[in-house]
Amino acid sequence: MKGGLRQSMAWLHTWSGLLLGWLLVAIFITGTSAYFRDEISFWMAPELHQSVASEATPELAWATLGATAPDARAWDIILPHDRSPVAELRWQPDTPEAAEGGGRRRGERVEMDAGSGEILEPRASRGGDFLYRFHFELYGVPRIWARWLVCVATMMMLVAIVSGVITHKKIFKDFFTFRPGKGQRSWLDAHNATAVLALPFHFMITYSGLLIFMVMLMPWGMNAAYEEGWRGFFNDVFPREEVAATGSAPAAMVGAIQPLVNRAEATFGQPAQRISVSWPNRDNARIEISTGKEPAITDRRRGGNPALVFDGGGKLLDTKPGLYDDGASARIYNLLVNLHLARFADPATRWLFFLFGVVGSAMAVTGMLLWVSKRTQQLRGREPGFNLRLVNGLNMAAITGLMTAMAGYFIANRLLPADLAGRESWEIRVFFLTWLATLLHALVRPHRRGWMEQLAALALLWLAVPLVNLATTHSHLFSAIAWRHGALASFDLVCLVIAAGAGYALWRLAGHRPVRKPARAARAARALPEGETAS
């Protein structure tokens, strides 16, 4: 770290980005996919694609729960919405086990066809939730250690962003400069452009990612102020409503839920989203119907929607406008967390965040490739050493390997038998086995031919995803179902775009011929006066 501030920052930028760069690439890519987590999960459950919401959906769900779990301690109906056309039914059995922890266990859950009321049985799959959880908890690592590792990598990313801005004194000028086919210079131009293009997004997504884990990273203030530590803090800032601990005498509830749904929708001018019932078919039953509202970027992560509360007989008990004054600190926290998760976003905004995530992934990727390109040019024709071959192989596995593994995960979803025991675990095994195969290949062939082979595999597998989907389901690019649910058609189109991108990269790499600079001796000879020779 000798030299001035800019030289010191350059050293810091290089090594903070390199040491955990492979993990950061995985975090960025899987995090980018998480913006369409629900859509990925829906694509991976083709048994749900025939569902179409109707006005009868609330009554069908109400009757289904009344017949399936009349003695449950709680019901929860999540009505169809723009990201899922099925109705999700949940209930908690009235057992001593379910009563533990205040009755907040997940209980049972089924998917219902919103048009017919038929209980659907989708294939077992973790769907987009696997990629989402991998983004910040990895997999197969104890949760607390995985979160700490991700937080350390995120802090290194924040350091790399700040030091990178300080290092590049012509960073905005370089943003408008791209020189293709120039090796190291081209990678630097691409790195600068992707860094500056979405610089506010990069800083926001990194800083807010650390803020989400503030309770884990810096619990000392909450532990000092509250006897219960961080639990006491959140109970104070986000208090839970008291719910009766036990049910009372049996009593009939309203037979038709639609009039209550209509009343809630007329009151708030928004469609109903959720019907929650505590102690159904008891005389202390409470029915809460919550509706949507205009999204606000400072909203609470959970709750806060307008709702009407009725007793079991349909008598209005309370009106919740969904307006909360949580204080400035809570609103700032909600702002940054909602920005990170894009919970407030409409489809257009979600696509914008997705594109920013792609740019962020490209920034991390080009930074890793730039490191190798710079040191490869310094070899001047010599064979690369073990360290450089290792870094190049790890780059290959982290970039093309991870993307290939994701394609394998989606293909496994379609090809594994629907009744396979532990099916969701086998999908994840295919993901990691594919990734492991690319890692072994990259370590054996950490050179240009290796990159070409992995790019070819990447293009073929992503092309295979929509083709396998075409062969195994009725909701593909050439079916009305896929276009009725735009997420299904968009998924296949994105797969084709990725395959085309990998194919283009393969074509460019196969036709690339590195420009060899004149030897230093030749340049020196031309610079000598006439008649003299170099000694």
How would you describe the overall organization of this protein?
- An eight-stranded antiparallel beta sheet has the order 4-3-2-1-5-6-7-8.
- The protein folds into three domains: 161 residues, no CATH class; 150 residues, no CATH class; 149 residues, no CATH class.
- Helix 2 crosses helix 7, helix 9 runs antiparallel to helix 16 and helix 17 runs antiparallel to helix 18.
- It has 535 residues and is of the alpha+beta class.
- It comes from Alloalcanivorax marinus.
- This is PepSY domain-containing protein.
- Keywords: Membrane, Transmembrane, Transmembrane helix.
Give me the secondary-structure topology.
Layout: H1 5-19, H2 21-33, H3 37-43, H4 57-68, E1 74-78, E2 87-92, H5 96-99, E3 108-112, E4 119-120, H6 127-137, H7 143-167, H8 171-175, H9 184-197, H10 199-212, H11 214-217, H12 220-225, H13 230-237, H14 258-268, E5 272-278, E6 286-291, E7 307-311, E8 316-320, H15 328-341, H16 347-377, H17 386-415, H18 423-444, H19 448-472, H20 480-484, H21 486-511, H22 520-527
Antiparallel strand pairs: 1-2, 1-5, 2-3, 3-4, 5-6, 6-7, 7-8
Helix pairs in contact: 1-7, 2-6, 2-7, 2-16, 2-17, 3-6, 7-10, 9-16, 10-15, 16-17, 17-18, 17-19, 19-21
Region (Disordered): 92-114
Biased composition (Basic and acidic residues): 102-112
Protein name: PepSY domain-containing protein
